[in-house]
Amino acid sequence: NSRGAASLLKDSIPITEFSASGPFEGHDLLRRGFRSVKSELLPSHPLELSEKNFQLNQDKTNFAMLRNIQGLHAPLKLQMEFRAVKQVQRLPFLHSSNIALDTLRGNDECISFEDILNDPSQSEVMGEPHMMMEYKLGLL
């Protein structure tokens, strides 16, 4: 057969054509996973989207101001430092405070919501150390 496996796959009928359509169509859990009502809803308040992107918007504003004051090199250097600091993490089963990133952003002396209500002993991150490391390394 001179036709390869790719052409056989291209000629095959997609599975989606066999699914039921219309108002009585069922949700296929195996292909699409569980439904999330939260993802289907619109933001409940106009400021919710702004609050989710607050840090990103603040960084963009600070980089623009820094570029206008000191030139192009300053925000590039700071962005490079941000990337380097974000790569340094603790092991996956230990809580990371990201103190270096907070110091670069100037948030190290501020007390915020996460400082009070983000107790690492109550977080769901703690788990089996060996399993979490194998997952992070792609062995599982």
Could you explain how this protein is built, in words?
This protein has helices spanning 5-11, 29-32, 37-40, 48-52, 54-70, 73-87, 99-105, 113-117, 129-137. The protein has nine helices and no strands. 0% of the residues are buried. The chain is extended. It is mainly α and 140 residues long. Helix 5 (54-70) packs antiparallel against helix 6 (73-87). Helices cover 52% and strands 0% of the residues. The longest helix is centred in the middle third of the chain and has 17 residues, at 54-70. It starts with a helix and ends with a helix. The chain has a domain at 49-117 and 126-137. One of its GO terms (cellular component) is nucleus. Belongs to the POMP/UMP1 family. Pfam families: UMP1. InterPro entries: Ump1. This is POMP protein.
Give the % helix: 40-55%
The total strand number stands at: 0
Q: Mean pLDDT, nearest integer?
A: 76
User: Which percent range describes the beta-strand content?
Assistant: under 5%
Query: Residue ranges: pLDDT <50 for 5 or more in a row?
Result: 1-19
What Rg, in angstroms, do the CA atoms define?
24 Å
Alpha carbon gap, first and last residue: 38 Å
- Per DSSP, the total helix count is 9
Protein name: POMP protein
InterPro entries: Ump1
Family: Belongs to the POMP/UMP1 family.
Keywords: Chaperone
